[in-house]
Amino acid sequence: MFFSEIHERIRFVFLVSLFILIAIIIKVFYIQVFSYQKLNTLAENLWSRQLPIKANRGLIVDRNGKVLASNVTTVSLVVVPGQIHEPEKVAKDLANILNSNYQDMLEHVTKSTSIERIHPEGRQLSYEIAEKINALNYDGVYLLKESKRFYPYETMLSHVLGYVGIDNQGLSGLELYYDDYLTGADGAIKYFSDGKGNKLELTEVYEAPTSGITLKLTIDMDLQMVIENELDNAMAKYEPEQGLIMAMNPQTGEILAMASRPTFNSNSYQNYSNEIINRNLPIWMTYEPGSTFKIITLSAALEEKTINLFEDSFYDDGSINVDGATIHCWKAGGHGAETMLQVVENSCNPGFVHIGSTLGAEKLMSYIHKYGFGSKTGIDLNGESSGILFDVNKMGPVELATTSFGQGISVTPLQQIRAVSAAINGGNLYTPYIVDSFLESETNSLIEKVEPKITGHPISPETSSLVRYALESVVANGSGKNAYIENYRVGGKTGTAQKVHNGSYLSGNYILSFIGFMPANNPEIIVYVAIDNPKGVTQYGGVVSAPIAKNVLTSAIEILNIPPSKEGMAREYTWLDTKYYILPNVIGMSKKEATQALKGFKIEYSGTGTKVIYQSPEAGYYAKEGETIKLLLG
Predict the structure, then answer these.
(1) How far is CA 134 from CA 75, 93, 109, 396, in A?
(2) Which residues are CB-neighbours of 375 under 8 A, at least 6 positions away?
(3) CA 565, CA 585: separation in Å to the nearest integer?
(4) What distance in Å separates the CA atoms of residue 156 and residue 80, rounded to the nearest whole number?
(5) What are phi and psi of 269, to 5 degrees?
(6) Is residue 308 part of a domain?
(7) Active site residue: 147, 291, 473, 545, which one?
(8) How many CB atoms lie within 10 A of CB 103?
(9) Could you tell me where the DSSP H helices lie in 137-184?
(10) Residue 494: beta bridge partners?
(11) How far is the C-alpha of 629 from the C-alpha of 487, rounded, in Å?
(12) Residue 269 forms part of a structural domain
């Protein structure tokens, strides 16, 4: 009995021990097979450290690949407090080199943390300072690669590009709007240390950073430089309060160029006030558009067939009375009897009051909303304004009259150029955009292409054709003559808008504008110019802004490769104008006959023979009086 109890106990102890052994084996197997990765990660976190390597921000390039925003390599200072043996000495030397406070530096190097970034005095260091720190050769003091944003064109396109902060985060413009795309993935140098932070002699692991996505813009930098130069000239010549020029492809909504004054240098944005760096005037500024808005009234009336450009007439005696209010024409005494086309050519306010009355407030306002006024355009930039419109339910005869010629309402330049684009491109209202595509940073391969987006059809193609004709006539025969370009078809409209302050119109203070496009029959570019209160000049958009737009369009001919045309409207020249004449065809004529036919021009002959076999420029194009015509005899 006694031995039987002992055997039972031994058997029990054996079974319990066997069970415990099996449980241990299962646990070890589970740890080794299933929990290895988790435990290994936890262990690595205890004795591994990382020195961060900042990624390059994605490039920003124009439509032709010119780099507008890039990166330059700098270094930043980080310390590992656990590896620093003489913190007081290290803090003193670093403070002297960085010209910073000793106590602040001592706090950095003795801080209870695995890695401490010296911010801001240790960020984006110059080569000279980095060399001095490197020469100290202190344990626990590291200089790490860091990229710094660089804008090679400095002040050009600055409001569109924006700028970044010290941590390379976008703060305005495209840098802010597309920050998630431009920001890359940081890398690191991984090393191993003991519990006190001392570096162990184990293999380091390098994790390379990944650069951000490249943004390819719709901007043409050649055209951008043209408008920047024109703005600089206007600021120097007229000393306006501010100014802006923008260009767009009316067939797609692509922004080709955009600039305003005052401007700033994105590389040193800290040196400018917030009023300058955060106000991109083409999308932010709101003002009464003046006569450029008459294009909208005209198109609405043509679409509704309330007027006929060629058959209907209006008599302008210099003013018109609307519900007791007198609205004057810019021309004292008026223009007399006019067709509706002449009302447009002459930019006649009383005539447009009449056009507006044929529509009525409700109908006119419906078209204004169809053109996108009163709401943001949706451009891929921050800070866009919506403008201000009359409430149609509160519009009386006077409000209808002033709205008809662009007074009493508030719009942005971007809204204006977008709406006029729809009026001339066949009736398609596009969403303006600046980013054309997204590219992979290393290979430049296409990730995504942005396609034009139509958001409405305010008018028909037939009406749009009439609008183009009327606006080409404005440039050939009306108030926009200073934008006329011989051998090219240009359409446009001037604007002279009196400025408002605290609810009252300012005397002698105007925003002078011009909106022009070419070719008039099939527009490839539309340009908007607005100069705010120029000094020492007649306050008319046709005098100040139209010549600026002409210069931009003239440059665009070569940049966009726009061919000449023999089909444009002829311009009537005054005795003050430089005279242009259509060249006759002298091919086949004798030398004597050709000389007689080209009287008023200089002739340069080459070749031998009795007949002209070639002429340059060719027949049918305009040539300036006194210009040299080259003839080949044979």
Answers:
(1) 11, 12, 16, 76
(2) 386
(3) 16
(4) 42
(5) -60, -20
(6) yes
(7) 291
(8) 10
(9) 158-161, 173-177, 179-182
(10) 514
(11) 16
(12) no
* 291 catalytic residue (yes or no): yes
Strand duo 116-117 + 580-582: pairing: unpaired
Domain count along the chain = 4
Q: Which two tokens stand for residue 338?
A: 């006019």
CA distance 456 to 459: 9
What's the confidence (pLDDT) of residue 49?
A: 60
Both 382 and 438 in a single domain? yes
Residues 497 and 614 in one domain: no
CA distance 293 to 368: 10
Instruction: Give yes or no: residues 62 and 158 share one domain.
Output: yes
pLDDT of residue 198: 54
Q: Which residues contact 498 (CB under 8 A, 6 or more apart)?
A: 288, 290, 407, 505, 506, 509, 510
Distance CA 475, CA 336 (A): 21
In the numeric block, which tokens belong to residue 612? 């002209």
Amino acid at 64: N
Give the CA angle between residues 180, 181, 186 to the nearest 5°. Answer: 75
Placement of tokens 């054309």 in the chain: 436
Residue whose tokens read 């080409």: 472
Residue 383 pLDDT: 92
Q: Is residue 302 part of a domain?
A: yes
Range of the domain at 484: 221-264+276-559
**Alpha carbon distance 249, 38 (integer Å):** 57
430 and 301, same domain (yes or no) = yes
- What does the alpha-carbon distance between residue 195 and residue 254 come to, in Å, rounded to a whole number? 58
**What is the C-alpha to C-alpha distance for residues 164 and 177, in angstroms, rounded to an integer?**
11
Backbone phi, psi, residue 559, to 5°: -65, -45
* CB hemisphere CA count around 301 (13 angstroms): 27
Any domain includes 42: no
Residue where a domain terminates, one of 526, 559, 592: 559
466 token code pair: 């009439």
* Segments of the chain with pLDDT less than 70: 1-7, 30-52, 188-206, 575
> What's residue 44's pLDDT?
54
User: For position 600, which CATH number holds?
Assistant: 3.30.10.20
Token digits of residue 400: 């209808």
Same domain, 289 and 436: yes
Identify whether residues 236 and 111 lie together within a single domain: no
Domain identity same for 82 and 8? no
pTM for the whole structure: 0.83
Task: Kindly state the tokens that stand for 350.
Answer: 């009383």
3-state helix vs strand vs coil in the chain, percent to 5 = 35, 25, 35
DSSP secondary structure of 585-610? --TT-BHHHHHHHTTTSEEEEEESSS
Q: What is the pLDDT of residue 86?
A: 86
DSSP H stretches of helix in 425-560 = 461-477, 541-559
Helix, strand, or coil here: 65?
A: coil
User: How far is Cα 534 from Cα 513, in angstroms, rounded to an integer?
Assistant: 11
Based on the fold, state whether residues 256 and 297 are members of the same structural domain: yes
